[in-house]
Amino acid sequence: MPELKKDLENIKQKLTEHIKSNYDPEKAEEFLSNINSMSEEEFVFFLKEQGLIKKGDEKQRCIFCSIVFGDVPSTKIGENEKAIAILDLNPASLGHSLIIPKEHIESQEKIPGEAGKLALETKGKLERTFNPKKVEMIASNIMGHEIINILPVYQNESLDSERKKMSQDDLEKIKETIEKKISEEDPTEEEVLEEKKEKPAEEINEKNTWLPKRLP
């Protein structure tokens, strides 16, 4: 059972980070005290009840799968058919985000193209919003789930930089800043229609269009 024990330790660490980031200190201390007082069997039962371990076997749902399924709250800034983009709870820099494939992908080679597309879209949003020196895309594997870090670099930040714990309110403000910046820059539907009206209709003639020869 060494693998299970290691996985339980990883889950407990992620839960601790999540609780500290989303609850006031007094409530967080109460939750953590209850969790830390549990035996291994009690903790496994607790995780099963929360949907983090599948009932009937000892295979856990990792923290990222729980985020995808909505069992663990997150601050989502993008989504497509195969992946979601969220703000990191403990970012290494302002805007640090994670691209999480919706399936439990265990190797970098299996990351779907749609996740890569969402990573590029998120990278562009962070560049336009915060104007960092660069934005790095770094693949990581945590609890067997491949993710992509989207890391804005302002000075010399890396994934090993000191992390800052963010409250849910802080993350929501960052999300609002991103959405506001993108909405200001992207044209509205009315503006797109107006631009189309202003452009003269292109004349179709023999010079710019292939036309079939007329039969005699």
CATH fold name of the largest domain, please? HIT family, subunit A
Overall average residue pLDDT: 77
- Count of separate structural domains: 2
Question: Which stretches of 5+ consecutive residues score pLDDT under 50?
Answer: 207-216
Which structural class do you get from the secondary structure elements? Answer: alpha+beta
Strand order of the largest sheet: 1-2-3-5-4
Q: Can you give a write-up of this model?
A:
The protein has 216 residues and is of the alpha+beta class. The chain folds into 2 domains: 1-61, no CATH class; 71-190, 2-Layer Sandwich (HIT family, subunit A), CATH 3.30.428. 44% of the residues lie in helices and 15% in strands. It contains 7 helices and 5 strands. The protein has helices at residues 2-22, 25-36, 40-49, 63-68, 113-130, 168-185, 189-198, and strands at residues 76-79, 83-87, 97-101, 134-142, 145-153. Strands 1-2-3-5-4 form a 5-stranded antiparallel beta sheet. A hairpin with a 2-residue loop joins strand 4 and strand 5. Helix 5 crosses helix 6. 25% of the residues are buried. Mean pLDDT is 77; it is low at 207-216.
Q: Any descriptors?
A:
HIT family, subunit A, alpha+beta, 5-stranded antiparallel β-sheet, 2 domains, 216 residues
Describe this structure in a few short sentences:
The protein has 216 residues and is α+β, with helices and mostly antiparallel strands. It has helices at 2-22, 25-36, 40-49, 63-68, 113-130, 168-185, 189-198, and strands spanning 76-79, 83-87, 97-101, 134-142, 145-153.
Question: How is the topology of this model organized?
Answer:
Blueprint: H1 2-22, H2 25-36, H3 40-49, H4 63-68, E1 76-79, E2 83-87, E3 97-101, H5 113-130, E4 134-142, E5 145-153, H6 168-185, H7 189-198
Antiparallel strand pairs: 1-2, 2-3, 3-5, 4-5
Helix pairs in contact: 1-2, 5-6
